[in-house]
Amino acid sequence: MNIPADLKYTKDHEWIKIDGNEAIIGITDYAQGELGDIVFVEIETEGETLDQEEVFGTIEAVKTVSDLFMPVTGEVKEFNSKLEDNPELINQDPYGEGWLIKISISDAAQAESLLSADQYKELIEA
């Protein structure tokens, strides 16, 4: 299973790549594997500022629908429009082409509460 060391993770299986005050968010390889074939992503929060752990959208797979949670407080700047026609990109490349949103971070200190790759690995192997 792929758990890139340069990312931070949440207990809800989102990853975040932080670059200054900007960040990209997606779901982990583990999460996409548990969900199965992803058929639809709904994110209607573009332009909104959401708190840490607030729901920013939903992801629908053949088996289930799951909420997506903000790893840190921030404004949703962009939704990955490629997912509208190709939601399976999340299954194929969860850390690359399958990213979900880009945000502007409001409180960078919140990133310190996120999991490292090693901590996330311990969580999913527990």
Give a written overview of the molecule.
The chain has 126 residues and is α+β, with helices and mostly antiparallel strands. The chain has a single domain, classed as RNA polymerase II/Efflux pump adaptor protein, barrel-sandwich hybrid domain (OB fold (Dihydrolipoamide Acetyltransferase, E2P)). The chain has four helices and nine strands; from the N terminus they run βββαβββββααβα. The chain has helices spanning 29-35, 82-85, 89-92, 117-125, and strands at residues 8-9, 14-19, 22-27, 38-42, 49-50, 55-61, 65-69, 74-79, 101-105. A hairpin with a 4-residue loop joins strand 1 and strand 2.
Quick one: CATH superfamily? Answer: RNA polymerase II/Efflux pump adaptor protein, barrel-sandwich hybrid domain
**The number of domains:** 1
What assembly state would you assign to the polypeptide chains in this entry? single chain
Mean pLDDT: 96
- Give the terminus-to-terminus CA distance: 15 Å
State the shape.
globular
Record keyword descriptors for this entry.
126 residues, alpha+beta, OB fold (Dihydrolipoamide Acetyltransferase, E2P), 4 helices, globular
Task: Give the gist of this structure.
Helix content is 19%, strand content 35%. It has 126 residues and is α+β, with helices and mostly antiparallel strands.
Structural topology:
Elements lengths: L7 E2 L4 E6 L2 E6 L1 H7 L2 E5 L6 E2 L4 E7 L3 E5 L4 E6 L2 H4 L3 H4 L8 E5 L11 H9 L1
